[in-house]
Amino acid sequence: MTTSIPRRTATSPAAARRPRIRELAALTTQENILRAATKEFAKHGLAGGRIDQISKAAKSHDRMIYYYFGSKEGLFIAVIEDAYQRFNDAESKVILKMDDPVEDLKTLVRFMWTYYQKKPEFITLLNSENLHRGKHISKSMRAREYSSPAISLLSRVLAAGVEMDIFRSDVRARDIYLMSAALAYFYVSNRFTLSAFLGEDLMEEEALAHWEEFITAAVIRQVSVAASS
Predict the structure, then answer these.
(1) CB distance 40 to 53 below 8 Å
(2) How many CA atoms lie within 13 A of 79 on its CB side?
């Protein structure tokens, strides 16, 4: 008895490309939706953001938003996750000397300060989520991932400073992160009301340069051995 061997059907190059093309198209659609949703939610918040406006801006359809993100809330969570991811990606490109802890710490503080200015939608999205008491980001399976790179980088810089006897050993990276974020975030997020209250334009180049110098100096003083002695 002879056993027949199944013939292999050759896959044409065109057929092999089709799944890849569909995959890329799906990724492009999701990216377009995220970009459109970021603008919509940053401007109007979760409650005011409209699915039809997002799909229109993304040149997509409402059903695709629900297909990829499940719900309006699911899309909002994805937008917040994406905003944090982009922050981390940008920070990962910061070049540190690793032989000059003071300059490296200044670089990290300046990065945060500059990023908040260049990405105002990041500020407004976080403001919106805090109005909801963080209930959406708390549902994210990835929320804890986003603080790790920033804290880890700060920890390395602080450890290098401690080893060189120029930084205090009792300072936590978490605290310096919160200090840097607070000084930069509050200024940018409240720039309009503060400008009216103080009677000066806080977004003028000179004012921005002054505050950058102020917050970097404040952080360095906080960690410096010389300042604490």
Answers:
(1) yes
(2) 31
The answer to whether 179 and 158 have CB atoms below 8 angstroms apart is: no
d(CA 227, CA 229): 6
Beta bridge partner(s), residue 116: none
Give Cβ neighbours of residue 127 (< 8 Å, ≥ 6 apart). 189
Specify the pLDDT at position 34: 96
CB 56 within 8 A of CB 68: no
- Which domains does the chain possess? 16-70 (1.10.10.60), 77-228 (1.10.357.10)
Q: What is the pTM of this model?
A: 0.80
- Residue pLDDT, tens place only, 109-140: 999 999 999 998 999 999 888 888 878 888 77
Give which of 128, 169, 173 is closest to 152, Cα–Cα: 173
Mean pLDDT of 79-94: 90
Query: Of all residues in the chain, what percent are helix, strand and coil, respectively (each to 5)?
Result: 75, 0, 25
Q: Using only the alpha carbons of the chain, give its radius of gyration.
A: 24
Distance separating alpha carbons of residues 146 and 154, to the nearest angstrom: 14
Burial of 140 (0-12, 13-18, 19+ CB in 10 A): middle
Contact 137, 203 (CB under 8 A): no
pLDDT at 11: 52
Task: In whole angstroms, give the CA distance from residue 32 to residue 34.
Answer: 5
The candidate with the shortest Cα–Cα distance to 76, out of 117, 111, 46, is: 46
> What's the whole-number average pLDDT of the chain?
88
